[in-house]
Amino acid sequence: MFRTWSLKTFLSGIRLFLGLCLTCFSTAFASTDQPEPFGQTVPFENLPGGQYAIDLQINGQGPFKFMIDSAATRTAIFTRTLKKLHLQTNQGAPAFINGMTSSRYRPSARVKEISFAGHSFLNHDIIILQDRKDMENVKFDGILGIDLMAEMTFWFNHQNQNVSILKNASLPRTKLRHWKKLNLKRTPYSGKDYGLYFIRTRIAGRWVPTMLDTGANFTAMNWKSVKGTVIENELRRLREDWVVNGSVGVFKPRQTVLIKTIKIDKIHLKNHYFLIMNFDNLPVNHYGKYPLIIAGMDILGGRDFILDFPKRRLFIAPPKQSQ
């Protein structure tokens, strides 16, 4: 005996069958999802210069205050912190450290454990920095570098004065739909990849590579970046003054200028101060051979932001969403 099906019942059966297929497919596909995000939300402290610092534990001791520095390839502590921890420096060749104005060899030390925001790193070598002359004014114990941050996402919330530090982070698209998204690039010039992150700045009709530096409280550019602009005239004036004064020492021109309007990637700045100098100690622009800008925290204007290092993204909140 044949069973008669109405068209409505038949279509309902198709919908049910397709629904079951999609459910099975979704279940199978779920096994390939990313691992669950993990980490913690911790308080941050704004240092006098506007940079961000969080607390770390080292070998079970602490807390020690570390400045978050996206332009530091290695995590480091000052000599005074080394003494507090009673650590011994490593034997063998020291590490060569490049700074904005100088370069030098520095020793390292191995720590059994560094932990922060639910993350732990075992048997890690850190750089030992020389104490500064004004150490009484230095409000942090060390620098948190890219070697420990490269797999993490940092979400800064100024209203709550905290930062969420997560691995395998999944960012909410709906919440971020009005945020500015900047793609972070790796080393812009040929040669070694130092693991740093770059955006770009529009100057004189060209884009200049711009290194994102959360450890800087100012934005600077080298003289090659302003070539072809009226600011280049300042370089000639400074050289003339140097010659008139007897050409003493090495010519190291520095000048702070107020730029009325400039575009750093998707960030439009008005009446912003820039320090102009040479970056002859930095390998990322071949020791001063090419244009380079270093963007400090001043470009964000105190807004909330997300640094997604694994996916190379920077999200910046609209001013009204940062309180």
TrEMBL record:
Signal sequence residues: 1-30
Keyword Nucleotide-binding recorded: no
GO MF terms held by the record: aspartic-type endopeptidase activity
Keyword check for Signal: yes
Biological process according to GO: proteolysis
Top-level lineage group: Bacteria
Residue ranges of every copy of the Peptidase A2 domain listed in the record: 208-299
One Pfam family this sequence matches: Asp_protease_2
Alphabetized UniProt keyword annotations: Hydrolase, Signal
Protein name per the record: Peptidase A2 domain-containing protein
Organism: Hellea balneolensis
